[in-house]
# Entry
Amino acid sequence: MRNIWTIAKREYDHYFISPIAYVVAFMILITTGSIFAVNIVIFQQNVSQLFGQAPDISPVTGAFGFLLVLAIPAVTMRLLADEARMGTLELLLTAPVRDFELVAGKWLGGLLFILSIVAVTLIYPILLNGIVIGNLTLLQPMVTPGLDRQLMLSSYLGVILLAASFLALGVGISAIFTNQFAAFFMTLSLFVILWWLIGFPAQVLPGASGQVFNYLSMQTHFYDAFGSGSIHLKDIVYFVSLIALGLFTGTTAVEIRRWR
Amino acid sequence: MIQVNGLTKDYGARRAIDNLTFDAEQGEIVGFLGPNGAGKTTTMRILTGYMPPTEGTATVAGYDIIEESLEVRRRVGYLPETVPLYNDMTALEYLKFMADLRHIPDAEERAHETLENVNLADRANSYIGTFSKGMRQRIGLAQALIHRPEVLILDEPTIGLDPAQVVEMRKVIREIGKDRTVLLSTHILSEAQQVCDRVLIINKGRIVTEDTPENLQSRLVGAQRVILRVRGDSDGLTGRVTKVKGVRGVEAKPDGSVEFEFDAGEDARPQVAKAIIESGYELLEMHAVGLSLEEIFLELTRETTGGKKSS
# Structure
C-alpha cells in the first residue's frame, strides 16, 4: 500500500506541471460550466413547464460520460508509456516495488487528479441549491427543501466509478504500448466501443444476447442507474470489474515486458 | 556477495548471454569489460531483477534473483546506462521519491546526506532537467546509493563524461567500493585497470577471460605493434620487413606506411631499422601503437569466433 501511495503522489504532482492536465481540466470545467449556465437560463424561462419538478444536477454529471471518454486517454497515455520511453521504467522495475503496486499507483495518481477536477464542479450543485432555496449565499448549508441529494450523490458516485474504470483501462493499455500516441488512440477506441458502439447491438439483438450487450454498455450503468438516482450492487460490480480488468492487464503487460 | 551460475538469456533467437558463471566477494570491485552488445547490460539487468534469465541461477546478497527478487532489489543499488531521471523533479524531490520507495525513515534527511556524498548539495533544489551530463550521472549514482546497498551495480558509469568528471567518478566509485561489492561495466580498458580489483572480459555473451588488472595487462601486452614509415616509394618494404627474425603480422597500409608486430620479450625494432636502411630506404618514423580494445578482443576471441570483428 505504501508503495502505491508513493507512486500515486509523485504522479499526482506531475500532472500539475504538464500542459495536458490543464487542457483536460479546462475542457471539463468549461463544458460543465456552460451546460450548467444554459440549464439555469432554460429553467428560468420555463418555470411554469417545470413546475412541480425539482431542478437537479444531472445535466452536469451526465456530461461527464462524454467528457471522460475524451479526457481520460490523454491523462493515461503517458502513465507507463512515458516511463518506458525515458528509461525510468528500469528504475521502477528494479526498485523493491511489485508490478501491481506500480500499476495501481499510476492508476490512483490519475484518479486523484481527475477527482480534483470533479471536486471543482461541486460548485454547481451548491449554486443550484442556493437558487432553489432562494438564497444565493454560497456558504449557505444545503437545507431542505433543496436539491434531490440522493440523486446528486448517486450521480457523483457514478462519475467517480466511471472515471476509475476508464483510468484503469487506460493504464492497462498504456502499459502495453511504448508509444504515447498508440496508447492514446487504442484507449480512445476502446472507450468509444464501450461507451457508444456496444449500445447498437444491445438495441438490435433480441433476447438474451441483446441483454448481454446491454449489460456491457457503460451508458446503461452510468445513466440508467447512478444517473437516475438508484445505486445497485450489479452496477457497482460492473465498474469494479472493469477496474480489476484494467489493473490486471497493466500488471500482466509489465510482467510480459520483463520477459522480452 | 554475487554468485552467478550458468546464466543464459535469449532474446528471441539471439542469445545475449551464454552460460555465464562468475562471482564477486564483499568489498570487491569487479569490472565487466567488453564491446557494445557483449551482454554486459543484459547480465546487469538480470542481477538487478529487471528481467528474468532464460536459464541458470544467481544469488545476490544471499537471495535468489528469481525467487526472492524483491529482497535482492532491496539490497542492490543500480545505475542503468541511460540514467533514469525525472527532469521535472528537483534533485531533492527525486531522491526523496526514491527513498520513499525504499521505505527509508527520514527520507528527506537521507536525501540531503546522499546529495552531499555526490557533491550536489548546492543544487538540491534545482530541476534535474537543467543538469549537465556529469551532474545527471552523479544524481543517478546518488539514487543507487540512497539506501546504502550491500551491492552496487553500475552500467557504464563514466560514459559521456568529460575527462575531469571521469576522474572524479572513478574516485567516487573506489571510495564506495571500500566496504561494498561493486560490479561495473565499461568498454575502456584503462578504466577497468584503474578502478577494479578484478576484471571479467566478456564477448558475445561469454566470459573470455578473468583476471586481476595487473595480470591482464601483462598478458595483453604480449605482442607489440609498430608503425613504420619511409620517405618516397615503399615498394618491396613489406617483403623486406617480413624477413626480419621475430616479426609477424606485416601489413601494408594504404597511406604507404607498414605495420608489424613482435613478441614483447624480444624487441625486433633495431633489426628492422637496420634491415630497412641497408636496403636503401630512408626511415622517417617508427613508433609503437597500443593495442586497441577491438584488437584485444580479436586476440582473445580468435579461437572461438574465427577472428571476426565483433560489433
